[in-house]
Amino acid sequence: MLEVSDLHAGYDNTPVLRGVTLSARDGAITALLGRNGMGKTTTIRSIVGLVKATSGSIRFDGRELCGMPIHKRAQLGIGFVPEARQVFPSLSVTEHLKIAARNGKGGRNAWPIDRLVELFPVLGRRSSARGSQLSGGEQQLLVIARALTTNPSLLLLDEPTEGLAPSIVDEIGAMIKRLCREPDAPAIVLVEQNLTFALSIADQATVLVKGEVAFDGTAEELASDPELQRALIGLGTP
Ligand SMILES: Nc1ncnc2c1ncn2[C@@H]1O[C@H](COP(=O)(O)OP(=O)(O)OP(=O)(O)O)[C@@H](O)[C@H]1O
Ligand SMILES: [Mg+2]
Fold first, then answer.
1. Per-residue pLDDT tens for 46-64?
2. φ and ψ at 176, to 5 degrees?
3. pLDDT (tens digit, 9 = 90+) per residue, 137-151?
4. Where are the domains of the chain?
5. 15 lines ligand 1 (CB under 6 A)
6. Atom 30 in ligand 1: which residue has the minimum CA distance?
7. Model confidence, pTM
8. Pocket test for ligand 1, best of 13, 38, 193 (most atoms within 8 A of CB)
9. What are phi and psi of 19, to 5 degrees?
């Protein structure tokens, strides 16, 4: 589904990614982990096309994305939920979903609003609430739902749990897991600083250290090795 290999990218003359390899498959979660500034967001931005790769390859659905313009990549079915939640304060939940809804891949919109509400019931209960009235957790679910309106086959989530209370984090985890069990579930790349959370829901894990892959394996393998976690991601992570 998504195969990133030997990706090099950076900003102006500053190289950040130095040979990143990463994969994600339909209905599964790949956690992309690492301390601050290790290149997680840069990796996601390179897949979306916001950062230009200097070399390497990003294959998605059998196509090469490197060199392809951003809008073309979006049309192939790449959904991106950036770190800042970007909810409109004055628009209601339903309005957010309506303005985002457009035909996705293959002219299809497989995620009409009622299906999204079924998946994330809180959005139904809060359908007329305005962006400014939503809690951080509700805003996060809304932006994930908004990204799903176009029926992406790859969903990139950049630190969805940042700043949220532990009980809300668990709820978001349960929703993401539920999404994975849907019949046409996307492949998910989940960038996280919250290691416990990420490893509790992910299938695969990739850890970046200074723009290089320091671990690539199953989430289970990393979850069962606290020494390795400490060495690669360090103490002080939640
Ligand atoms: N727009 C930019 N211009 C120049 N350098 C940047 C830019 N954005 C990020 N960087 C640098 O690239 C490196 C990787 O940043 P990146 O945002 O990818 O890290 P990250 O792993 O997502 O970190 P965090 O956990 O803090 O979000 C850092 O050294 C950062 O300072
Ligand atoms: Mg980041």
1. 999 999 999 999 999 999 9
2. -65, -40
3. 999 999 999 999 888
4. 2-233
5. no
6. 37
7. 0.93
8. 38
9. 90, 50
Ligand 1 within 6 A of 53 CB?
A: no
CATH for 2-233 is: 3.40.50.300
Both tokens of residue 118? 């079924």
- d(CA 162, CA 42) in angstroms, rounded, equals 17
